[in-house]
Amino acid sequence: xxxxxxxxxxxxxxxxxxxxxxxxxxxxxxxxxxxxxxxxxxxxxxxxxxxxxxxxxxxxxxxxxxxxxxxxxxxxxxxxxxxxxxxxxxxxxxxxxxxxxxxxxxxxxxxxxxxxxxxxxxxxxxxxxxxxxxxxxxxxxxxxxxxxxxxxxxxxxxxxxxxxxxxxxxxxxxxxxxxxxxxxxxxxxxxxxxxxxxxxxxxxxxxxxxxxxxxxxxxxxxxxxxxxxxxxxxxxxxxxxxxxxxxxxxxxxxxxxxxxxxxxxxxxxxxxxxxxxxxxxxxxxxxxxxxxxxxxxxxxxxxxxxxxxxxxxxxxxxxxxxxxxxxxxxxxxxxxxxxxxxxxxxxxxxxxxxxxxxxxxxxxxxxxxxxxxxxxxxxxxxxxxxxxxxxxxxxxxxxxxxxxxxxxxxxxxxxxxxxxxxxxxxxxxxxxxxxxxxxxxxxxxxxxxxxxxx
Length: 454
Ligand SMILES: *Cc1c(COP(=O)(O)O)cnc(C)c1O
Hints:
This protein is of the alpha/beta class. It has 18 helices and 15 strands. It has helices spanning 8-14, 16-29, 39-54, 80-91, 113-120, 131-143, 169-176, 191-197, 224-234, 261-267, 292-300, 302-306, 311-323, 330-333, 335-341, 344-362, 399-407, 432-437, and strands at 62-63, 98-99, 104-105, 124-128, 151-156, 178-183, 202-208, 237-243, 271-275, 286-290, 367-375, 387-395, 413-414, 416-418, 421-425. Strands 4-10-9-8-7-5-6 form a 7-stranded mixed sheet, with helices on both faces. The chain has a 4-stranded antiparallel sheet with strand order 11-12-15-14. α1 crosses α2, α4 runs antiparallel to α13 and α6 (131-143) packs across α7 (169-176). The two termini are 44 Å apart. Pyridoxal-5'-phosphate binds next to α6 and β8.
């Protein structure tokens, strides 16, 4: 049956084994039916059955949620330079761990460490799979058990975060083999709380950037800089998980200030960790910068081998970091900064261009207008500071169905429903022609003017 001409195109696309598998199911379902077979109908049946298998599961979408760095939608988009570097690394052998000068083994960290040192002012740097891995590794290397004895890490109760996806500081601590010592209260922690908690088994103090929430009102936290003398005096490590972290001052683009890795290093923090695919705008990675003796210990830890980056992401990361060598051009070259820095007036103009197209596509299925909205950076950066933007706003009955229809487009469109509207925040719409070009395929069972028939 697999050699039927009607099946040839499917065999070419999906391969023989999958088609045969589908044919078995088809034959099973037809057991007891007459022997006359409609080959074309069978081919269509197999095609439908295999459709899911032969098309990619991870698909391109339009992220119009208003969250620029959306974790569920893959966070930062890479710069063209980073894409090209990743593709080149995929296609060829590379000097991943090879020193061309003397034809000997090299270090994979050497591709990014010099850039990280330059951009943060740190003595040394390393990179791993993601920031969660970085925190786990740093804790285990600097504060893991010694001679079978668990050591302690002090964290303020105001910073015992959960990031989502099961990243909770207490759990990470336990898995790193450290004993967590909580100090202070949820809203207030003082320097003296840290000082009083330090004992013979204390290995480190850790600061954690409260990424996805803000504590407001009667609050007090101790900045890392104020902890530096205490950590030095007691001979323990001061670690800071910056979360998103950034390498440049976002105020350059009129955005609120977010702590930079350089500020943490200059304040005297021993080891700083942050993500590669949040504000930095690169591939998923966890970056670790700080004191050379500590980074050496971290890099020698056996977990480092299990958490290391592959050549593709290292190539993309290196290319991304290189863009930071010319910060003046970041807004044009790095999609994350480009989206964040986009002026609201430009977004509004885009909304006005798209409004008639969307009206036409929706007919009478929904009312469309332009609404001022507030988006967010996402991925834990600046949880309370919102980005003024404009959205295409649809109102009417059955918003959920409308949202379903947009998700059913060839390039699914993901918006958000808020205050009785389906909102498409246009801050992150970079491919306007592709968005507009597929609107006429919207399947809303519409009763508007575009529908023919009774
Ligand atoms: C996002 C975040 C993490 C986890 O980083 P990943 O790169 O997603 O692993 C850890 N800590 C903080 C404070 C964060 O904001």
